[in-house]
Input
Amino acid sequence: MEQQRTRTQPPRPRGRASDEGGPRPTVPGPAAPSDPAGRGRLRLPRARRRPEGAVAGRGTAAPSRRLTAVGTGVAAVAATTAGAVADRALLGGPGVLFGLVYVAVCFQVAVRVRPADLAAAPISGPIAFALALLATGHTSGRGVGGHVVGLAAGLATRAGWLFAGTGLAAAITAARWVALRRSRGR
Output
């Protein structure tokens, strides 16, 4: 019985004789950048070419670091809870520092969420606010009932921060959505 061998590499292109005596591939390779002026400098392919006058690191677009919907929620919960823990450690409970951190987190989440997930920014903020209060807020008694009453009291007494951060995130995402619609309409 004869076993068939399978090839692990594609076949090499056949060569033809060149002026130098060695084989020359008949299949063209990647095109070499051309320099019609003969200045001797290498030109980058069009996809990677920098705009005229751009310096490396300045004026060039950085890779997009956008948050997905899940990433938005995780970042909001982590940062808001960290702010609540720091406020509780420094000042005895969620207060002004917690509110300022929450508003900053809502701003960052709304600015960094990717366009396909714009709706996640104003939704993830209040969820993060409630989870941070639940983790670090005061309770009104034992058990689940005490935690629920403590959470309700915390949400009621800090409603200004909650509405400020959520409203900021909603306004930014609405503005981004309108700008996105206008840019696609052209």
Observations:
- The longest strand covers residues 15-17.
- The first helix runs from residue 69 to 91.
